[in-house]
Design a protein that fits this description.
With about 300 residues, the protein is an alpha/beta fold. The chain contains 9 helices and 14 strands. Strands 3-2-1-4-5-6 form a 6-stranded parallel beta sheet. Strands 7-10-11 form a 3-stranded antiparallel beta sheet, with helices on one face. Strands 12-13-14 form a 3-stranded antiparallel beta sheet.
Length: about 300
């Protein structure tokens, strides 16, 4: 059976971790695309030479030409500038919009059957742009956001309680930014609601840390933003698609009536399998949670309204 083909648009920090994970886990053969000459080729060669040590037979190659992504089953887009300290994700809108328009055109023309995962920021606006320009069905264009936000929330809860991260589940909805909505009621530790295990003060602090987690990494690194955790999150989504796992993951999906929202990409729980985004799950929210969710929606809407296609 032929291996799947995974193309990564953007050979920076996230693209590098994506390539490594995809190839070393043998999820598929990997093509790294970047506009910088030599960069994707060099990274790919380095990783390919390390593959025998792990016994990974997936091929890894680099290119500066979109035509080499032909035949891709999955395309993961990380192209764009990363944040610098003091910047919000929204500050990247103008620059990254121009890049995303080129990327969406390249993907549409050369990988018309791919399942596309967008990681570039500001996420909700970038995935919307990809969908509009590619005109792919909504099942095949999705944004990586909630998987990462939920992972961060899970990590903080696990550290606070001194328990395995495996036993913590969490759900973070809304836009991928400071207005995201961690739904504390749906966070459990081996099925036990987190509110039964931690004080309200501790939980509130974890919610705040989750909202600002990306910024916390940016402030420490000073020369870039988080790259390992976003890459692992996108790989989890790609694997769910390639292996038809029917995973329930929080992703930025195009809503057409769900949650009373039309025509916007927003973080919600969905089922990812061989059909792409196979179903959006609607969860009940309290009045307060809905208020936060609506504020997050408004924020996404203001970003999308600035997009000129």
């Amino acid at each position: 059976m032929a291996r799947s083909k995974i193309s990564l648009i953007g050979g920076g920090n996230i693209g590098g971790v994506l390539a490594q994970e995809a190839a070393y886990r043998e999820l598929g053969d990997v093509m790294i695309f970047d506009v910088v000459e030599g960069l994707p080729q060099g990274k790919a060669l380095d990783m390919a030479e390390g593959a025998p040590i792990l016994g990974a037979d997936a091929a890894i190659r680099g290119t500066n030409d979109y035509k080499d992504i032909a035949g891709s089953d999955v395309v993961i887009v990380t192209a764009g500038l990363a944040r610098k300290p003091g910047m919000s994700r929204d500050d990247l809108l103008k620059t990254n919009l121009a890049i995303m328009k080129q990327v969406a055109t390249g993907v549409r023309d050369h990988a018309p059957n791919a399942f596309v995962i967008v990681v570039s920021n500001p996420l909700d606006a970038m995935v919307y742009t990809m969908k509009q320009i590619s005109r792919f069905p909504k099942q095949r264009v999705v944004g990586m956001a909630g998987v990462l936000d939920s992972a961060r929330f899970r990590a903080f809860v696990a550290w606070e309680l001194g328990v395995s991260v495996q036993d913590v589940t969490a759900l973070v909805l809304g836009g991928h930014g400071d207005t995201m909505v961690p739904l504390v009621r749906y966070c459990t530790v081996a099925g036990i609601p987190v509110a039964k295990l931690l004080s309200k003060e501790k939980i509130d602090a974890i919610v705040e840390r989750t909202k600002n987690a990306g910024g916390e990494v940016v402030a420490l690194l000073k020369t870039g933003s988080a790259f390992v955790s976003p890459a692992l999150s996108a790989i989890e989504m790609a694997e769910a698609y390639l292996r038809d796992k029917k995973r329930v993951l929080a992703c930025a999906c195009l809503l057409e009536g769900e949650y009373g929202v039309n025509g916007l990409y927003v973080g919600v729980p969905c089922v990812i399998g061989a059909g792409g985004v196979e179903k959006v799950l609607e969860v009940e929210m309290t009045g307060d949670e809905r208020k936060l969710f609506d504020a997050s929606l408004e924020h996404v809407r203001t970003l999308v309204d600035q997009i000129q296609l």
